[in-house]
User: Fold DNA-binding transcriptional MerR regulator from Neobacillus ginsengisoli.
Amino acid sequence: MYAISEVAKLLGVSTHTLRYYEKEKIIIPDRNATGERLYTDAHLAWLRFAMKLKQTQMPLAQIREYAQLYSKGEYTTKARLKLLEDHRKSIQNQIKNLVETEKMLEDKIAAYKEFIRNLNPSSNDQMNG
Assistant:
């Protein structure tokens, strides 16, 4: 079992973030007799997964929906699968857009480098020689 400060350190997030995720019902940690939050290895695995979903632009509302579906049991498997498949499509679109943007940047950078080379070719020769 891990205290909230330990989990925050392990995951590289603030305790505020973990409390926020709890408030949003993305994670529900156990509690000890004095009410302190306790996290298990399963909680850590779930938080790592949820944080990856967040990093890939899945809205917290959808992460919460997934968590709620999971907590309801196996009969929600198809709904969870659909949610993840839809998100994968979103990620694939993000990747496509990023690749296209990278290509545009490469072209623009090459054009600027060529322009700078042509501004003063004699100083470029001195730098290269």
